[in-house]
Amino acid sequence: MDIIVYFKEQNQQLYGFIEGEIDTFTAPKLRDELENIKFNENRDIVLDLSKVHYMDSTGLGIFVAFYKRALREAGQVKLVGLSIRLRRLFEITGLSDLMDIETDKEVEIN
């Protein structure tokens, strides 16, 4: 399976949409896309994971690294639309206590 990552900026927010599976093979593409994001104080970043069907520990590591970078660069990151399976993965690892996660919400852009 492949991964699709795309972004749209609206109202001082950058919305990222991730679709597919995040594993050892697709993670480098996601990492590259997230590394290209520029943080600033006036822009929140919302990553919609509602169309992510599978994620392994490699994917978790990418989100942890991105979250740490956001903290260093005064950025705000929120993960939304996590399936029950993904939410459980973040809970088991304790990351749901550290990261801003909204499971019931999907991003709707005009």
UniProtKB/TrEMBL annotation:
Domain STAS positions: 18-110
Keyword match Phosphoprotein: yes
One Pfam family linked to the record: STAS
Gene3D superfamilies for this protein: STAS domain
TM spans (from-to): none
Coiled-coil residues: none
InterPro entries documented for this protein: Anti-sigma_ant, STAS_dom, STAS_dom_sf
Protein origin, superkingdom: Bacteria
Keywords of this entry: Phosphoprotein
Function: Positive regulator of sigma-B activity. Non-phosphorylated RsbV binds to RsbW, preventing its association with sigma-B. When phosphorylated, releases RsbW, which is then free to complex with and inactivate sigma-B.
Similarity section: Belongs to the anti-sigma-factor antagonist family.
UniProt xrefs under NCBIfam families: ant_ant_sig (TIGR00377)
Protein's name according to its UniProt entry: Anti-sigma factor antagonist
Organism listed in the record: Lysinibacillus piscis
